[in-house]
Every structure is written in C-alpha cells, then in structure tokens.
Write a structure and sequence with these properties.
- The complex is a heterodimer.
- By secondary structure, chain A is α/β, with parallel strands linked by helices.
- Chain A has one domain: 3-Layer(bba) Sandwich (FAD/NAD(P)-binding domain), CATH 3.50.50.60.
- Helices cover 23% and strands 17% of the residues of chain A.
- Chain A has helices spanning 16-25, 65-68, 112-116, 126-140, 165-178, 222-228, 275-284, 361-370, 380-387, 431-451, 513-529; strands spanning 2-3, 7-12, 32-35, 77-80, 183-184, 232-234, 238-244, 250-256, 262-272, 311-317, 333-335, 351-356, 391-398, 407-415, 421-426, 455-459, 496-498.
- The longest helix of chain A is centred in the C-terminal third of the chain and has 21 residues, at 431-451.
- In chain A, 61% of the residues are buried.
- By secondary structure, chain B is mainly α.
- Chain B has one domain.
- Chain B contains seven helices and no strands.
- Chain B has helices at residues 13-26, 43-53, 55-76, 85-93, 96-109, 113-118, 142-146.
- In chain B, helix 2 crosses helix 5 and helix 3 (55-76) packs across helix 5.
- Chain B is elongated.
- The N and C termini of chain B lie far apart (51 Å).
- The chains are: A alpha/beta, B mainly alpha.
- The interface between A and B is large, with 73 and 57 residues.
C-alpha cells in the first residue's frame, strides 16, 4: 500500500458541502486535498443534448445508484424503506441531478423542541447562518424575489426569479383564489448571465444535469474557484476507512483508486462530506481499538436519526395546454401556507408545496402508467392526450422528525465493487409524517381544483424521493446526544469534522442543499477563526 | 456486483415480426392516423436493445411470443402475425409479458421524431436551443404581499 506525505486538510466527497468548504478554506493556503469517488461530468455527457434524453433517467442518469450501477456508485440496500435513496457520485455530487430548488430554513426550524416539543433544537440559529446563506446565494448564483412574507426581511439574492410560465401563473391564481401563500421559488439557476455562467434556456432537463451550466451544481460554482486557489481534487478515489493514531486522533484514510489499488493518504485534519448515507457508512466502517463501534460513535448515534423528506406528489389535469415542459423542471413557485405548526391539523411541524413543471413526453406516459391511466390498445392515445402538456402539480415536502429507529447500518452481505460494505437503510414513516402527507394530499387537490384542474393524480409517499439524506451524525452540544458539536467537530475526535446533511438536528420542510452549504461555510469560517486552538 | 453485460441471443425474424405486432397492440395507430402504432414506428429496435441487457425479460418475451403463436393457431388456425388486429389485441391482453414490455415501449415511442411532431413538439432534444417563456406577471403577488409577514418570529 503506497502512502504519501500528509496533507493539512483532507476532504472526503466533492459534493455540495465539500465544494463550499474547500473554497472557503483555500484562503488559508493550507495543503488541501479532496478525494471523490466519482469523476467530472463532461458537458457532452448530459442527456439533454440527445434525442433519448428522457430514457436515460432510467439508466445511467437514474436517481437510484442501484439502477445506475456506474463503477463509481455503491449499492444501497433500501429494501427496508418505503422511500428509495437517490444520489449521484461525481464532482458536484447530487447537485448534478438536483432540481436546484434553494430555499432557506426558517427561524422556527432551528427550534422545533422549544416551539413544538418535537425533535431537538439546533445548537445554532437562523441569525447565525443568515450571512452564510447570503454568501452562498452569491456563490451558487441564486435567483428569486426579495420580500417573501414567510421569511424575515433581509434575504439577499443576486438574480431575478425563474419564469413562472403559463403553468406557474395558472397555479398561482389557484393559490390566490384560496387566499393561500405562494412565492417564486429561490432557485440556484442563473436567470441571467452570471459570473461566467450562461443564462437558463428553460430546457427542463435539470433533473438529469444542465449542459448549459445555468444550474448551480457545485462542479461549476465552487470547484473551479477552489481549484484556482490551490485545492486539489483527485477523482475515482473511494475511501474505505478513516484511520486513527495511538491517541485516537484521525491520521488519514485508506482508499481505492480508479484501478482498485489500495492506497493510503495521511492528513492532519479529516473532513467528511459524503452525505447522510455515505458519511455514517464510512464512520461505521472505520473501526479500531479506540472506536470498536465505528469512528466518533461513542454516543451510539452514528447512523441513527436518519431523516428524509416524505413527499406526496399531487398532479392536476387541466383542460388546456400549459407549456409545462418549458422551464426549470423543479423550480417554479412554492407555497408555505402549511409550513408552521398548527395543532388543529393533528400533526407537528409542516410542509412546503413546490410546484413542478409538466412532465416530458416519456415521463407523461410513465406517470400515467404508474397511476393506472394508460390503457393498452385503442384507448391509449385518448388517455395520453388527456395527460400530455395538460398536467401541472406539486410535491409536498414534509418535515421528517428524527427517530433513532430510522437507521443507516452496514449491510452484512452486499458490497461495492471495491469490497466495502454497502449501507443498509431501515426506515419507517412516522404517524406524524403519515398524517402530514394525508393533509398535504387533500390541500393539494383543493388548490389544483381552484386553479382549474378537472382531475388529479396522487402518489403518496413518493417512492423514489429519497433525495434528502439527513441527521445520521447529528449536531449538538451534548456528547451523549449528538455526534458533532455546533461547528461540525466530532465530539470524540478533535481533528475530525462532518460538514454534510448528516449533521442536521432536524430536517425542516424545505430542500436542504442551501443549508448544507451555508453550514459548510460557517464551519469553515469557525475553523479559520480557531486554527491556533482547533484541537483544544 | 459485476460490470459484465449479460448476453442473450438475437430475436429471429419471425419473433421480430411478432414483437412488432405486440407493440402495435400496446400502442396501436390512432384512428384518425395522426399517431403511428408502436410497431410501425420502429420501437421494436429499441425494445430489442433493452432485451439484450435484461436476460430475464428476454426469456419472458421469447416464451410469451411462442405462447401467443400457439394460442393464435389453436383459436384461429393461423399464426399470431396473420390474425386480425382485434384478435391480436385480445391475445396480447391475455399475456402477462406484454405488460412488462409497456414501460419500454413507452420510452421508445415517445422519443421518436414522428411522435414528437404529432403531439406538438419540435423533434429535437431540449438543449442547446431551449424554450422561450414570457416575462413574469408579478402583480399576481399583490394579494400575498397584502396579507403581511407570516413567518414565526422566534
């Protein structure tokens, strides 16, 4: 096994968090290396440039690594979960396939225990993260509109909102008829040329990557700048375990290069950014005499408190065509009418409605099929015509509560191509989530009817919606009830940091990427301010 | 996990013709002629490409085609491809394998240029041309603004 000179900072994972953190730390001029198990996605590789673009969502650009089965993917045993895991392994991580819906958490999201008696309070608050949200908006190129009444004033966004289109305005009128909140979505999508990135052309392929470069995936935002400042990224390097020295301090990693050769990289500081599944998998696989139950796991909480966002999808069928396939596929308008807790609803916390664009030609047929609306034979074309470009709807993204019975563990049998144990997911929907989903479906139907829909289709819970992976190395001040402290340092290992969605204390009811990156920037800033006493 | 691609035999010419008929039964031509049938639209080549990567489905299809032909000969004293459209549709509906083919037929069918034109789309990928959308009418937000702040101050 070859070994190299130690680096100052070793980041594992080049996704949303690793990129933001690397860029911020680069100004220290320390020797920073990032190991990423995937590669760079070339512009020409994206499906949206080819006629078979929609088909590839069922193949090499599928959400699920179990379907994609690229060399850089690792299998995930999610048979024990009603929600299947979605991710992408590349420089940019899952931002390659995400919708770039980019809302912030709300002040109340950091105080679920105090306000509503559920979950836990975060060890930091909205005001602490607000400047990092603002910085992240500038770095990622976020479009939106100031003045959303669901947020405190002062939110700064550099670009105007995405076009609503006929579809968005149709739905907005439905919300207005009911007197419900809606607002143009904050989107990490450049609606105008911005910092060398081209403007969005409304192609609608966001969920399979953006060859235009308008979508803010971290390979086109943070990474070019971080690399220019001296950070190195080595791709196709899959880390097997983090090693510790005789004092129980992290001293590097063992990894496999793209040819499957085992290698060693030493480091003074190790930063884990492998997402809410990959991070606990790595820590649990890093066993030693100091940490027989997995690295930084003296609390026993590594891999526990797994949170998704349970999704319900409610789609309306409209009598007229909506041009729905035009525009950013996951970003249009959102509603937070039912975001904050109202005990009369019968559940704690709440959810956002995020309006979706209409489906493409293939996806229209597939959604119709999954909802039992596409008959064999002569009636096929009538059924398809009722759906095609006449569908518009929403997902309800529900806050998940942390439960120690929802877990990531190591699968005893399944391994990745390098022989590393696969993660195994054990997850059930809580009664609170089920009640919230039921409420969301009813309200979704109501607003779609108000917007003019003549019929609706429902999928709840949405089975392939395990996009948001949170909570499995949670943040807190009490070492017996959390894995990392309020700035991401492992309670048990003072030169080990976790900076991804794993550290979320609660999940809120919005997409997590903006908060993941704001936290990564905040953690990097805290480290920079405390370099002299970092391990005290 | 293995990276090796499974290998299966190519369909025979007779199987290929029968598969096209099955696909036409799943998506027949529209009555007014606007939409082609899936078989006539050439979806068979796409489906065969899928079958090459899925040995279990390949075996199911080959067996299903054989059973279809057997049923056609029993009921109509003709091969499956030689019976009328209505008879073929009835035979296909009774064969479970055809339902396993449906998603693959849809994927192949709705990315064909002729089909895209028929449903009102330009026959091109979304990039690099994209689509134009009109400017936003943000006056729609006036009632939302009028209701004032809604966030929980804490």
């Amino acid at each position: 096994m070859s070994s190299t000179e130690p680096v100052d900072v070793l980041i594992i994972g080049a996704g949303a968090a690793g990129a933001a953190f690397a860029w911020s730390m680069a100004e220290t001029k320390m020797n920073i290396l990032c190991l990423e198990q995937g590669g760079w996605v070339k512009t020409d590789d994206y499906p949206g440039l080819r006629a078979d673009w929609e088909a590839r969502q069922f193949g090499d650009f599928a959400f699920s690594p179990n379907v994609r089965r690229r060399r850089e993917d690792y299998p995930i045993n999610d048979a024990g979960s009603p929600i299947q895991i979605s991710n992408f392994n590349a420089v940019g991580g899952s931002t390659i396939l995400y919708a770039a819906h980019f809302p912030r958490f709300h002040p109340s999201d950091f105080k679920a225990r105090t306000l509503d008696g559920v979950g836990d309070d975060w060890p930091l608050d909205y005001a602490t993260l607000a400047p990092w949200y603002d910085l992240n908006a500038r770095m990622m190129g976020v479009s939106g509109l100031a003045g959303d009444p669901m947020y405190p004033p002062g939110k700064e966004l550099p670009l105007p909102p995405v076009p609503l289109g006929k579809l968005g305005e149709t739905l907005a009128r439905g919300f207005n008829r009911l007197g419900w909140h809606w607002w143009p979505s904050d989107s990490a999508i450049t609606t105008e040329e911005y910092e060398g990135r081209a403007a969005c052309i409304n192609a609608g392929t966001c969920l399979m990557g953006c060859p235009q470069g308008a979508k803010g995936s971290s390979d086109v935002t943070y990474w070019p700048l971080a690399i220019r400042k001296g950070v190195r990224v080595e791709t196709h390097c899959r880390v097997r375990e983090i090693t510790v020295d005789e004092n129980g301090m992290a001293d590097g990693v063992v990894y496999y290069d793209g040819g499957g050769t085992e290698r060693r990289q030493r480091a003074h500081i190790v930063v884990v950014a492998c997402n809410g599944i990959g991070t606990p998998r790595l820590l649990l696989n890093s066993r030693s005499k100091h940490f027989p139950d997995g690295l930084a796991n003296r609390s026993g909480l590594v891999g526990k408190r797994l949170m998704f966002h349970p999704y319900a999808m409610v789609t309306g069928l409209f009598p007229e065509r909506l041009d729905g396939y035009k525009g950013p596929s996951g970003c249009c308008i959102m509603s937070q009418e039912f975001y904050e807790t109202d005990t009369r609803r019968g559940f704690a916390r709440g959810y956002s409605f995020e309006m979706l664009r209409g489906f493409g030609p293939v996806s229209t047929a597939m959604i119709g099929l999954s909802c039992g609306r596409m008959p064999h034979g002569a009636d096929h074309h009538r059924a398809y015509d009722e759906l095609w470009d006449r569908n518009a709807g929403m997902v309800a993204i529900c806050e998940d509560l942390p439960e120690e019975t929802n877990t990531v563990t190591l699968d005893p049998e399944i391994t990745d191509p390098d022989g590393i144990p696969a993660p195994k997911i054990t997850y059930r929907l809580s009664q609170n989530s089920l009640d919230m989903l039921e409420h969301a479906v009813a309200r979704g139907k109501e607003v779609l009817a108000a917007a003019g829909a003549v019929d609706t289709m429902v999928q709840s819970p949405l089975p392939f919606a395990g996009w948001h992976l949170m909570g499995t190395t949670c943040m807190g001040t009490d070492p017996t009830r959390s894995v990392v402290n309020e700035w991401g340092r492992a309670h048990d290992v003072r030169n080990l940091f976790v900076i991804d969605g794993s550290i979320f204390t609660t999940s809120a009811g919005v997409n997590p990427t903006n908060t993941i990156q704001a936290l990564a920037l905040y953690i990097a800033d805290t480290m920079k301010k405390n370099l002299a006493t970092l391990f005290d | 996990m293995s990276d090796s691609t499974p290998t299966v035999r190519e369909l025979s010419a007779d199987e290929r013709r029968a598969l096209a008929c099955v696909l036409d039964a799943i998506i027949p031509p529209s009555a007014e002629g606007r939409m082609p049938g899936a078989g006539a639209a050439g979806i068979g080549a796409h489906v065969e490409g899928v079958l090459r990567t899925l040995p279990d489905l390949h075996a199911m299809v080959v067996e299903g085609l054989r059973e279809l032909d057997s049923q056609a000969r029993q009921q109509y004293d003709r091969s499956f491809v030689d019976v009328g459209e209505a008879e073929r549709a009835a035979l296909v509906a009774m064969q479970g394998f055809s339902y396993a083919l449906v998603p693959h037929a849809y994927v192949g069918y709705y990315q064909q240029d002729r089909v895209l034109v028929a449903i009102g789309m330009d026959p091109r990928p979304p990039h690099p041309e994209g689509y134009a959308l009109p400017p936003n009418d943000l006056s729609l937000l006036d009632p939302v603004k009028a209701r004032g702040p809604r966030y929980r101050d804490c």
